[in-house]
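Dear colleagues,

As part of the handover before I leave the project, I'm documenting each prediction I ran so the next person doesn't have to rerun anything. This entry is a single chain, and its sequence is reproduced below.
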Amino acid sequence: MRQWQFAETNAYYEELEEIIMYRFATETVQLTDRETEVLGFIALGLSAKEVALKLSISPCTVERHIENARLKTRTRNRTHMIAYTLRRGMLP
């Protein structure tokens, strides 16, 4: 009886994982033009201060754009976010 329950529970979690992965694969993320621009500079290796100088905005504003993009993409950190956006063709 217990082995059957384990198999049923396992199948449930496998199905749940499939649903979640499908949702994330088909979900579209909409970044603003400014977020995309900032992430492009970050992907080139510029710091927030360097990006701020290039765009004539505050470094805090750059950090806010980065954080907003990270939250929209549901990524763990900047590296993960840049990899995610590059893989999906979201950066020029």
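The two ends are 56 Å apart (CA to CA). The chain has a mean pLDDT of 86.

All the best with the project,
I.
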